[in-house]
Amino acid sequence: MTNELARLSVRSLPDVFAARRLGRELAAGLGLEHQDQVRVATALSEVSRSAVSLGQTAAITFAADENSLVLSVAVDGTPPADGIAAAARLMDVVAADEQVIRMSKRRPLHSTPDFPALTERLAAMLPESTLDELRRNNQDLIAALEDVTRQKEQLAALNAELQETNRGVMALYGELSEELEQTNRGVVALYRELDEKSEQLRAAAESKNRFWANISHELRSPLNSIIGLARLLADPDGGLDAEQSYQVELIRGAAATLLTMVNDLLDVAKAESGRYVVNPTEVGLPALLATLRGLMRPVTDGKPVEVVICAEDAPPTLLTDEMALTAILRNLLSNAVKYTDSGEVRVTARTLPGRVELQVSDTGTGIPAQEIERVFEEFYQVPGARRGGTGLGLPYARRLARLLGGELTLASDAGRGTTAVLSLPLKPAAEVSGVSA
Predict the structure, then answer these.
(1) Residues with Cβ within 8 Å of residue 52, at least 6 apart in sequence
(2) Residue 178 in 3-state DSSP?
(3) Lowest-confidence segment of 79-93, 98-112, 251-265 by average pLDDT
(4) How far is CA 356 from CA 166, 286, 318, 349, 361, in A?
(5) Which domains, from first to last, does the chain contain?
(6) Gap between the Cα atoms of 425 and 437, Å rounded
(7) In degrees to the nearest 10, what's the CA dihedral of 175, 176, 177, 180?
(8) DSSP, res 277
(9) Looking at residue 27, what DSSP letter applies?
(10) pLDDT per residue as tens digits for the range 150-181
């Protein structure tokens, strides 16, 4: 529903100023903001002025509906195009129909104007003089200029603050750049020192390996000679009495132990130096396990320990280095028998996706939990559980396992036994040759 509030005929410039004043008053009465009031007044002024400049009379109707301020301008000729174009930039809706121009501006949603009072106020207003209207326009212009000045001052303050921030950022960037440069110099020096240390460690490792290899090689011949001579002296026809035979047997046993240590040292040196060449071949796993059981029989003589081989789930063949696999399993079986006083040593094999898992379990003394990883250190033996050996067997076995592309781990319960698990691929990913463990 549209409420008509006032009418005005515009024939001259003073009427144009009056239309402007009435439009602004109507906008104020309907609760529009100050800028929208100016827009409504200016739109009416432009349409009215254009009509007057063409010699037309404009009949303006001031009205309002539930949502908008509504203005209707009827002219006695063709609606002025320049006035319509100017009004379109100021009002929400501008439409021209033959000789009638309709314009509207949205009202605030919650405004409740007093239409009767607004009608009386508009009717009582008399056209002001041109000077008064110019004064009002000047006041609007001054207010707009003051607003622009305030915005300019705010912008200048923001620019000054931004410049200050930029100076702080540049100073911080300079400090960070200097710190980064110093850090880089320190990192370069550290890497240089690490390279020097690595070179020293490499040289020391090579020297150690050469020492082990040379000493082992030089000791093997005289030790074999000692063992051979002791065997000859221990012969029943050697003419030795019981005490002398016992002493010779001690010499032979000590020499054999020392020869075992020398061989272990030589094997470890070979693995560490990268000279151990892995030659994968098709290995019959059940046959290899059966051979190992036969090799373990002399070791178990005199001990109530049974070596059990369970190869039902083992793959028939395994592509790996037979000598390395034999050395690993022989070492694990020897350790198991050595630390088992009674019970059994069980070897089981099972096939997993892409891998084979070999387990050597015993019912021996076991290893404390805190010592499990330490037994893989060279020359380390569990305190209070030494039964001969050099402490090199397990480290060497783990290196061989890794050369074969697998892994060797231990699980143990002190006093209840130990389980060694060797996991190997069914087929090596690639032929490995000369790789250090």
Answers:
(1) 10, 11, 12, 13, 15, 16, 58
(2) helix
(3) 251-265
(4) 66, 12, 8, 7, 16
(5) 3-128 (3.30.565.10), 147-273 (1.10.287), 281-425 (3.30.565.10)
(6) 17
(7) 130
(8) B
(9) H
(10) 889 899 888 888 888 888 888 888 888 888 88
Structure tokens at 405: 């592309």
Give the pLDDT of residue 255. 77
Whether the per-residue pLDDT at 213 is higher than 70: the answer is no
Over residues 329-377, the pLDDT tens digits come to 988 888 888 888 888 999 999 988 889 999 999 998 888 888 888 888 8
Give dist(CA 239, CA 226) in Å, integer.
Answer: 19
- Dump the DSSP string for 82-107: HHHHHHHTTSSEEEEETTEEEEEEEP
- Token output for 383: 């305190």
Element containing residue 72 per DSSP (H, E): strand 68-75
Task: Give yes or no for a contact between 421 and 376, defined as CB atoms under 8 angstroms apart.
Answer: no
Structure confidence by residue, pLDDT tens digits, 269-326: 666 666 667 788 898 888 888 888 887 777 676 788 888 888 888 888 889 988 888 8
Residues 6+ apart with CB under 8 A from 95: 101, 102, 103
Residue appearing with tokens 């070179």: 199
Q: Classify strands 58-64 and 343-352 as parallel, antiparallel or unpaired.
A: unpaired
pLDDT top residue among 260 and 384: 260
Residue whose pair of structure tokens reads 């402490």 in the numeric block: 391
> Is 63 strand, coil or helix?
strand
Interacting residues of 333 by C-beta distance below 8 A, sequence separation 6+:
292, 296, 299, 307, 345, 347, 360
